[in-house]
Specification:
By secondary structure, this protein is mainly alpha-helical. It has a 3-stranded antiparallel beta sheet. A hairpin with a 2-residue loop joins strand 2 and strand 3. Helix 3 packs across helix 5. The longest helix is centred in the first third of the chain and has 21 residues. It is elongated, with a radius of gyration of 19 Å. The two termini are 33 Å apart.
């Protein structure tokens, strides 16, 4: 008979959660070299993709509470990575844009995240990595 703990630890949901936690930890450690957290990286990436973007729209797109977003933007602006300026479409709102330093930092963060993910997947062969990514993508798209 399987123990209750062994049963729990064999569930796909438990295993995926543990692997996800390890992946987040590896990426977080890598981004710390830039003085950033995962949320900072997400804000930089979304700003690069949608910018200039209204601060409120950025928060909605990322699902970040407005108060938390202010703190993230204060950090990024203080580091010279983003600029906040009145939105030309609506002067009551702030528009966020990346600075050249923000673009360079985003490029370095992407490389750091790739390296961290390669470490996460290192126990797998290249074919197994492809299969895992295809399966995870299918599961994600179904949710």
């Amino acid at each position: 008979m399987t123990s209750a703990l062994a049963h729990i630890q064999s569930l796909p949901s438990w295993l995926v959660g543990r692997v996800a936690a390890r992946g987040r930890s590896l990426v977080a450690e890598a981004l710390a070299a830039e003085g950033l957290k995962l949320a900072h990286h997400a804000v930089l990436a979304a700003t690069a993709e949608y910018g200039p973007v209204a601060q409120a729209d950025l928060g909605r797109r990322l699902g970040i509470d407005p108060k938390d977003l202010v703190g993230l933007l204060n950090h990024l602006e203080g580091a010279g990575l983003v600029l906040r300026a009145p939105d030309p479409a609506d002067r009551r709102k702030n528009a966020i844009t990346l600075t050249p330093a923000g673009t360079a930092t985003l490029t370095r963060c992407a490389s750091l995240a790739e390296t961290a993910n390669a470490a996460l997947l290192s126990p797998l062969t290249p074919a197994e990595r492809g299969t895992l990514l295809a399966l995870l993508t299918r599961m994600h798209e179904a949710s």
